[in-house]
Amino acid sequence: MSNIKQQKKRILTDQKRYLANRHFISMTRTALKQANLAILEESVADAQIKVNYAIQLLDKLFNKRIRKMNFISRNKSRLFKKFSLKQKENLNKTEKEITKK
To answer: The pTM is what?
Structure first.
């Protein structure tokens, strides 16, 4: 450890910031996993709620400068792509049911 007083303070504040940021990163990772599972297994409405929550957390990470824009946009894009496929799949199922009747 350094003998310089300012450097000692910097180490302490960096550690505090790291611990606080880990909480947000962990929450976001969990939300992304839950959104992906919801897209695969649940209805479109339930998946929509979880995807929106994950997007909110991603935006919060960027606003707090915890993650960079490339990480945020890449994850948003992946989520929206999967979700739009789910919506199209659901739409096709309903159209087939209507045409059968």
So the answer is: 0.78
